[in-house]
Write a structure and sequence with these properties.
Number of helices: 5
Structural class: mainly alpha
Shape: flat
Strand content: under 5%
Number of strands: 0
Radius of gyration: 18 Å
Largest sheet: none
Number of domains: 1
Helix content: over 70%
Length: 136
């Protein structure tokens, strides 16, 4: 197998790794939130206007399992795996839609997160295979 030259890899490889690292970070945060919900459910307070369909245990397991999935997908993105890119793109689109919906509530934060999600999705779609080139 021939080693890739540095001219084959663009500067977007940094965004690909940024997307992978963000997925790892978010996976860890979701797993921690899931563990908190499972073992110390009095941390989450329900207000009178909130409607919860799931109990804390279900919510905790969903966050824990989703966090582990995102964590694994983030490492897969940085390893050049296609399934990690696909999952990263799907989760990035979901994050963009969710942040768009929250613009009236948290305008500055939502717009920043929307832009980051779009850039990460673009990097994974257009340049995601460059992570594989580095490892060759």
């Amino acid at each position: 197998m021939a080693k890739s030259s540095s001219s084959d890899i663009s500067g977007w490889i940094g965004w690909v790794y940024f997307g992978g690292l963000m997925m790892v970070f978010l996976g860890i945060m979701h797993a921690i939130a899931g563990l908190v919900a499972l073992f110390k459910d009095e941390v989450y307070v329900i207000g009178e206007k909130n409607i919860w369909v799931l109990d804390y245990t279900s919510w905790g397991w969903i966050h824990l399992l989703a966090g582990l999935l995102v964590l694994c997908a983030g490492f897969a993105v940085m390893s050049g795996k296609m399934w990690g890119r696909v999952l990263g793109i799907i989760l990035g689109i979901i994050a963009a839609v969710a942040n768009f919906a929250f613009i009236p509530i948290y305008p500055l934060w939502s717009i920043v997160m929307l832009v980051v999600a779009i850039l990460v999705v673009y990097a994974l779609v257009a340049h995601g295979d460059e992570a594989k080139k580095i490892l060759e």
